[in-house]
Amino acid sequence: MIEIRNVRKTFGALTVLKGINLDVNKGELLCLIGASGSGKSTLLQCINGLEPIQGGEIVVDGVSVHDPKTNINTLRQKLGIVFQQYNAFPHLTALENVALAPRVVAKRSRKEARALALKHLEHVGLGSKADSLPSQMSGGQQQRLAIARALAMEPSYMLFDEVTSALDPELVGEVLETMRLLKREGMTMVVVTHDISFARESADRVAFLHQGEVCEIGTAGEVIDNPHKEQTQKFLRREKRQPLEVA
Amino acid sequence: MQFQFANQGLGWSDTYFLAQGVLNTIRLAVAATIVGTLAGIVLGWLRTVSVTVRFITAPFIDIVRSVPMIIQLILANSFLSLLGIGASPFLFGTVALSLWMSAVTAEVVRAGLLSVPLQYRKSARSLGMNGLQELVYISMPLAFRTALTPWIGLVLSLIKDSALAGVVGYVEYMRSTQILITRTHETWLLLMGAGLFYFIICYPVSRYSRRLERRIVV
After folding, report:
1. CATH no. for residue B163?
2. What span, in angstroms and rounded, lies between the C-alpha atoms of B105 and A101?
3. H-state helical runs in chain B
4. Which of A51, A95, B9, B51 is the most buried (most CB within 10 A)?
5. For residue B170, what are the contacts with CB-CB under 8 A and spacing of at least 6?
6. Interface residue A150 vs chain B (CB under 8 A)
7. Angle of CA points B59, B63, B68, to nearest 5°
């Protein structure tokens, strides 16, 4: 379980998170939605300690993330994260990308790590791409590679930071399909997304963030289809209008 | 009885002398490349991660990079003599050239490390790698790609600058050539030979680096 208690985060004079309270329960898919700058991505990066916080506490399975006594490298093995930019290591093949952390962090043998990597590549449908370099793969494939790489550490939680935002529209589907697969397998997931339809169909709960605070939280049916707060309604109207503007 | 100068024209016996100079040049260049590069990698890395180190080592880097090698060599040699510290010409040449190599390599390494996009480093850390693992498996290989070409340029400079080590008494190839010129006055022939020698050494290095670059940058 991830417990987020009154978390405050500032960049200089700018306060990005103004006391966030949020729980992520085992096995659920929680979507974080909100306008750009509402603090969703920052919150996600605070959860695995990539960003320091200025107040409050984040506790993962009873361990405080930002406590200086916590071994953050051990804790991070529990928290897989996938970024908007796929960040596949460009000097390594797909297989090496996935096998690296199991080998050097989890101290598995070279052979074990390769077998594990191949298993996870096949899991996300990239078995045939094992020996390809990221530069020889499409954006969607690279993003699935990033998912496989995070999964290879066998995390308890997966964090997704706008993973489809940088993709060409026709490549979004394959990445979302991989995420649905993980959900069916019972993975606990926190998904920052602009994709309202994905949130509606897949999320167990949806949290709407507005100006660094959790404005509204509940099931997808409550927050997306029947929002109570005025800010949520305004945001959703804007998001729903966008596809029309593009077309 | 005929009186004969022992040191008239250029003879086959001189090839041994010149070969000695060639070997000395190669020894000096190889030693200074290895020592200077290793020291430069450490220095460059330290200068990337620590503001204090960057501040403290800035004068060293700036002076070494901006003052001509020949002046550095002569001044350092005189300075050591004044202190009464005698070193073998080879050791002195190696130290002097290594210092130069470490300073310029450090800047190339630093630029290479800074060119690694933050997102890759973040990804590595998010997988549970510690700072050292991230450096070894991600930052260094990526920095290597950026730094390889400028570093080869430095090696070529170093090989050519090793010709200056003659001024501190090290008989490398250029010095042995000069000695023979003084004796035989075969200036043209000997200097052409010396020029050809440096070309033969440097050209393959630069060719090889071009091939390496093409292979690395996919």
Report:
1. 1.10.3720.10
2. 30
3. 13-49, 51-66, 69-83, 89-114, 118-126, 131-134, 140-161, 173-184, 187-216
4. A95
5. B24, B28, B89, B90, B92, B93
6. yes
7. 175
pTM of the model: 0.82
A50 near B125, Cβ under 8 Å? yes
Report if residue B7 sits inside a domain: no
- List b or e across A74-94, with b for residues whose CB sees 16 or more CB atoms inside 10 angstroms: ebbbbbbbbbbbbbbbbbbbb
Interface predicted TM-score (ipTM) of this complex, two decimals:
0.87
Which residues constitute the domain of residue B83? 19-216
Identify all chain B residues contacting A79, using CB atoms and an 8 Å cutoff.
Answer: 126
| B152 domain residue, yes or no | yes
Buried b (16+ CB within 10 A) or exposed e, B115-145: ebeeebbbbbbbbbbeeebbbebbbbbbbbb
**Under 8 Å between Cβ of A80 and A163:** no
Of A74, A87, A135, the CB nearest to B128: A74
For chain B, say whether A238 makes contact (Cβ under 8 Å).
no
How much is the pLDDT for A246? 45
Q: How many Cα atoms occupy the beta-carbon half-sphere of A233 within 13 Å?
A: 5
Rounded Cα distance, A102 and A110, in Å: 9
- DSSP one-letter code for A86: -
Written as tens digits, the pLDDT of chain B (218 aa) is 566 555 567 777 788 888 888 888 889 999 999 999 999 999 999 999 999 999 999 999 999 989 988 888 888 888 888 887 777 888 888 888 999 999 999 999 999 999 999 999 999 999 999 999 999 999 999 999 889 889 999 999 999 888 888 877 788 888 888 888 888 888 898 899 889 988 988 898 888 888 887 877 65
Break chain A into its structural domains and give their ranges.
2-246
Question: Rounded to whole angstroms, how far apart are CA atoms A110 and A100?
Answer: 9
For the record, the structure tokens of B102 come out as 């470490």
The answer to the question of residue B14 being in a domain is no
Measured in whole angstroms, how far is the alpha carbon of residue A130 from the centre of its chain?
23
Q: What are the tokens at A92?
A: 């390594």
Q: How many structural domains compose chain B?
A: 1
B54 inside domain: yes
Fold designation for A2-246? Rossmann fold (3.40.50)
Q: Model confidence over A153-168: pLDDT tens digits? A: 999 999 999 999 888 8
- Both tokens of A43, joined, read 């919150």
Q: Is B119 within 8 Å of A85 when comparing Cβ atoms?
A: yes
